[in-house]
Specification:
The chain is built from 3 helices and 3 strands; from the N terminus they run αββαβα. The protein is an alpha+beta fold and 102 residues long. The protein has one domain: GMP Synthetase, Chain A, domain 3 (2-Layer Sandwich), CATH 3.30.300.
Length: 102
């Protein structure tokens, strides 16, 4: 099965972690949208577990850098939103299990 650019973006996002939580941002449900546009420009709309997150800048920079490192990506646009606010319900089953919420 051929790996799509979106698959590669998801895989890259699974390597980004919030330093306070031992689960990647993708499985935490912090990534709301991934869009592949013209020239393979990648738009990621994401949130954080809390608006006052002290590592917000470094997490967003890491997401941007990991997307740009994927061969064939034309550009990265990482945007932060708090609408809707993140809740534990947005986590994958694996993340809930790992953090003891199941």
């Amino acid at each position: 099965m051929e790996t799509t650019l979106r698959d590669q973006v998801e895989e890259a996002l699974r390597t980004v972690h919030d330093p306070e939580i031992p689960v990647n941002i993708y499985d935490l449900g912090l990534v709301y949208k991934i869009e592949i546009g013209e020239n393979n420009n990648v738009l990621v709309i994401m949130t954080l577990t809390a608006p006052g997150c002290p590592v917000a800048g470094s997490i967003m920079e890491e997401v941007n850098n990991k997307i740009l490192a994927i061969p064939g990506v034309g550009g990265a646009d990482v945007r932060l939103t708090f609408d809707p606010p993140w809740t534990r319900d947005m986590m994958s089953e694996e993340a809930k299990l790992e953090l003891g919420f199941l």
